[in-house]
Specification:
The chain contains 6 helices and 39 strands. The strands form 8 sheets. A 10-stranded mixed β-sheet has the order 5-6-4-1-7-12-9-13-11-10, sandwiched between helices. Strands 15-18-21-24-27-30-35-38 form an 8-stranded parallel β-sheet, with helices on one face. Strand 2 and strand 3 (38-39) form a beta hairpin. Helix 3 (90-96) packs across helix 5. The chain is globular and about 65 Å long.
Length: 411
């Protein structure tokens, strides 16, 4: 193993729009989606802390929100924002940062979750990429290998092409020599300049080590947040109560309770649950983990919440059920609103993404609800359905298909 490089810079690609995580990313960039009550970008920065001195974040879509969230420094690291002027692909995003890169740098996609230990391991090599074995190679960019060295990357190979199942997960140890290949690539079938094409050319000239990832949590669809939330919450080992728990509330598991939050009498909390600041939970409600509830939320009487994510300022009125769902900011549930999370035939739940039916792979999946939605009393929502931001439902309305509307800036 080579001596560890003194890598001073990291580059995070956060410019993309991410239509596959609509409706949540109609109102925020993907890297600001909340998992276990923290935006994705903060997991990157926390894991980079102590490893690099400077982080370059490439932005475009809703860039102001990312700049406001992160600021110009983070835990001693200097933060530099670079705008990708045109959305011409991942290679173009890296090229946008070229003039800011000094020499060696750690490059990563800005939407999946990785571990600090994996960052440490890849930093031990001059050139390397992070990889993970996958069940279905057709869904990923697969690395061509020989003697544990990378020879190239083939995006989503056809079923009749057998090159293994080691997927590129989006973290690379590089230096400025990558830019020697920027004028040697052509647009892909997606009409974009692909980073993997640049890397494949570079691999013909440089020896790239393969580091197998210990943790890779891909955030491909909105429901991917639920799996990520469960993985991160399962790492918690003890409760932390900064708010108030009334004497007749029951806690059966690990609970993180933020400042000025209260769990009222009759509330029953089971499993691993994180609750933000200034929340009111109960009385007489049932919350099952793994669940994350953001700041300034209210969970009313006779409400059940199970394995869900609630962003900030969500109000779930009395007699409501929220299961296996992701709820955007400032959503209000009228009394008796119910989200179904299980099909009668017990098959996995499907959902339409960009006009195509996608199998979530989940037996239980509730709703994905955008910001500022108001559900009137007794709204019922079928499994896997999505509601676009700023939509109001009618009393007793049944949401059988995605409830969408034209959104500003949406193609």
């Amino acid at each position: 193993m080579q001596k560890q490089n003194k890598t001073l810079q990291a580059v995070i690609l956060c410019a993309g729009k991410s239509t596959r995580t609509y409706p949540l990313t109609l109102t925020r960039p993907k890297t600001l989606l909340s998992i276990a009550n923290s935006p994705i970008i903060r997991y990157f920065l926390d894991n980079l802390s102590g490893l690099v001195d400077e982080v370059i974040i490439v932005v475009n879509y809703m860039k102001e929100m990312i700049i406001k969230e992160v600021g110009d420094s983070y835990k001693g690291m200097k933060i530099v924002f670079v705008e990708q002027k045109q959305m011409l692909g991942t290679a173009d995003a890296v090229i946008a940062a070229e003039s800011y890169i000094k020499d060696k740098f750690l490059l990563m996609y800005g939407d999946d979750l990785y571990s600090q230990e994996d960052f440490k391991q890849i930093l031990k090599h001059e050139y390397a990429l992070l990889a993970k074995k996958v069940e279905d190679p057709r869904l990923f960019g697969i690395i061509q290998t020989k003697n544990n060295k990378a020879l190239g990357i083939i995006e989503k190979p056809a079923a009749n092409i057998d090159i293994g199942n080691l997927a590129n997960v989006g973290v690379f140890m590089l230096d400025k020599s990558i830019f020697a290949y920027k004028n040697k690539i052509k647009k892909s079938s997606r009409d974009e300049f692909e980073l993997t094409d640049m890397l494949s050319l570079m691999m013909k000239d440089k020896s790239f080590a393969i580091v197998e990832a210990q943790q890779w949590i891909p955030i491909t669809y909105a429901w991917s947040l639920l799996e990520a939330n469960e993985i991160l919450l399962n790492k918690l080992t003890k409760s932390e109560i900064k708010g108030n728990v009334e004497k007749n509330a029951a806690i059966k598991g690990i609970v993180i309770l933020g400042k000025n939050s209260i769990i009222k009498n009759g509330a029953y909390l089971e499993g691993t649950i994180i609750i933000g600041e200034n929340c009111t939970i109960g009385p007489n409600c049932y919350i099952r983990g793994p669940t994350a509830i953001g700041n300034n939320c209210k969970v009313g009487n006779a409400v059940e919440i199970k394995a869900s994510i609630l962003f900030d300022n969500v109000h779930v009125g009395h007699l409501s059920y929220v299961g296996d769902s992701v709820i955007g900011e400032k959503v209000n549930f009228g009394a008796g609103s119910i989200i179904a999370n299980l099909r009668h035939d017990n098959k996995t739940v499907q959902s339409f993404i960009n006009g195509k039916k996608i199998d979530s792979g989940r037996r239980k999946l509730g709703a994905i609800i955008g910001d500022n939605v108001h559900l009137s009393i007794k709204t019922a929502i079928y499994p896997g359905r999505k509601i676009w931001p700023d939509i109001d439902t009618a009393p007793c309305e049944i949401i059988k298909i995605d409830k969408m509307k034209q959104w500003k800036g949406e193609d």
